[in-house]
């Protein structure tokens, strides 16, 4: 590639890392950019390379957030996310994206409406020190498994859905949920990456270069989240709902 194309991709990877660290959805930035800058790139390779880049940045952001916020994460969340995202990636060819889009649009609008009508949701002080009932712990595991499987199949909005699930089921604020979501999202990226790598759908040289830029963007994004707190995450969540629902609706209409 020409140097200017490398510059565009590196800048895009950094921007995707920032977006991913703040609320999730970096793939919405990087995947279209990869396909536009490298026209001959197979979609599966773009997805696989994005998983490599996303794993690097998300793991980096998770490390920074967890050290500061110290959420309670169980190993089962990580293991389940890894397995279910891998299963989702294996099943991706069996499910048409056109079938997924209307369902995700409805879910996005439901999430956005709920958060908009409940200003206090996720912005109250965290209740992380309280006990969580057994049924809620099982519901959290179920939510992690379903969202991880979705990330392997389709992906957009995974971080946002995880934040919503953790906030609602564990009665905690957005900041603590964002830290938990980054850890789980790193695991979902790894699970899907293993499947894409097994199928030979990862451009390692490009992905590793972009991973460095993604980590830098993710570190900036993690510090943005820590500085802005739960209110910033709430604003970012609503912004992602608007952008993603608009993009998916446009794709649905034009397809």
TrEMBL record:
Keywords: Cell membrane, Membrane, Transmembrane, Transmembrane helix, Transport
Signal peptide from the UniProt entry: none
InterPro entries: TM_pro_TauE-like, TSUP
GO CC terms, sorted: plasma membrane
Compartments reported by the entry: Cell membrane
Membrane topology: Multi-pass membrane protein
Residues spanning the membrane: 73-92, 98-117, 138-170, 232-250
PANTHER family in the record: MEMBRANE TRANSPORTER PROTEIN YFCA-RELATED, TRANSMEMBRANE PROTEIN YFCA
The protein, known as: Probable membrane transporter protein
Species of the source: Corynebacterium marinum DSM 44953
